[in-house]
Amino acid sequence: MQRSILITAMALLFSCIVNATPEQDKKLFQKFYTDRFSDIPISEFSNGVYALDQDARDQWEATLDFPPYEYALEEGEELFDTPFRNGKNYASCFENGGINIRQNYPTFNRQRNTLITLELAINECRAENGENFLAYGKGEIAKISAYMASTSEGSIINIVTPTKGNGLADYKKGKQYFYTKRGQLNFSCANCHLQNAGRKVRSETLSTALGHPTHFPVYRMKWGGFGTLQRRIASCDAQVRAQPLLGQSETYKALEYFLTYMSNGLPINGPASRK
Amino acid sequence: MKVLFNNSRAVLICILLILASFSSIAKSVTQAQAKAATEEAHNLWQQSIAAGHEWSTIKPLVVQSKKNLTAKLYFSALSLAEQAISQSKQALIQAEHEKINWLNNLPK
């Protein structure tokens, strides 16, 4: 009798965890960080690891007098404004002319029943206007995306998650990917950026997953250029010796959707520079 | 003395012949094993991909194993394939385990 009660209770608990609403997930997720780093205001998580490590922050702030991404950002603006061969430009594809919209992406398109990231929307805009797709992750697409992010500086991330259907399924897919251990080193995203956030891996402080999407695309010294959030996720996968997925794969789009929703309420402060 | 020398020589030749035949058998067994192991490595690697838990370390092993098999480097092909098999099996165990275990990583 006691055993069956225990099994029923466990099944109920399991069901509650799996079927928690996105809103419940987000509250728990953000509470985890605000409890753990109780002296850090929640908006500071937008600064990633620099919210946690004062020495690193001092060095980072010193570089901001002459941001290393300045020229690449200007190029992004030029690319954004350059007309396509048909005379139209990127502004013609987006609401508000593509200005101050970063905080609304990724978005679930109900008509097409699919997730649309900002980089995917940029490429679809090109295709609609007879231009070739740009390679994802870096290069021109990251520069254009960085410029668009810069026009959203200070705007609050406002991702809407559907409560049913494929949108919710995508959200859950991203959530599961974030918490699932993978690769030869058997690490999940959460192992580093949730459970061990603030601790060291060799000489580096592990950043919090809360706030990750606010500052992408980032200009990484290691890359010598801008890279998108999905490029960084692929690097993380490679570091734990899991095979990285292709940019804009359904799984990476879902992960970006989940992560960005978890940062709802935080201000956009991208593009940013990182080591 | 001469008889002893002749006998020793005969024994030595016999030993060499036996070793040579073992070597030949071992080589042919390894060729068959290498081919089977490379095929098994490929199949298990594909299964790990299908399970969504491909490790980045497996593909290079499978690719090099196939190359070595083609180049008739059977011992090396077998060794690499066995490593790929072992890693793919671990990846599949991980995939099965993580079907439920990911819930343990949720914030508490």
Structure description:
The complex is a heterodimer of chains A (about 280) and B (about 110). Chain A contains ten helices and seven strands. With about 280 residues, chain A is mostly helical. Chain A folds into two domains: about 25-65 and about 160-275, Cytochrome Bc1 Complex, Chain D, domain 2, CATH 1.10.760; about 70-150, Cytochrome c-like domain (Cytochrome Bc1 Complex, Chain D, domain 2), CATH 1.10.760.10. In chain A, the strands form three sheets. A three-stranded mixed sheet of chain A has the order 6-5-7. A two-stranded antiparallel ribbon of chain A has the order 1-2. Chain A has a two-stranded antiparallel ribbon with strand order 3-4. The longest helix of chain A has 17 residues, at about 1-20. Chain A is globular. The N and C termini of chain A lie far apart (about 60 Å). By secondary structure, chain B is an all-alpha fold. Chain B has a domain at about 30-100. The longest helix of chain B has about 50 residues, at about 1-50. Chain B starts with a helix and ends in a 7-residue tail after the last helix. In chain B, about 25% of the residues are buried. The mean pLDDT of chain B is about 85.
From the spread of the alpha carbons, the general shape of chain B counts as elongated
E-strand count of chain A: 7
Give start-end ranges of low-pLDDT stretches of chain A: none
Largest sheet data of chain A: 3 strands, mixed
> Roughly how many Å apart are the termini of chain B?
88 Å
Please mark out the parts of chain B with pLDDT under 50 across 5 or more consecutive residues, or reply none: none
- Share of helical residues of chain B: over 70%
- CA-CA gap between termini of chain A: 58 Å
Just name the CATH architecture of the largest domain in chain A: Orthogonal Bundle
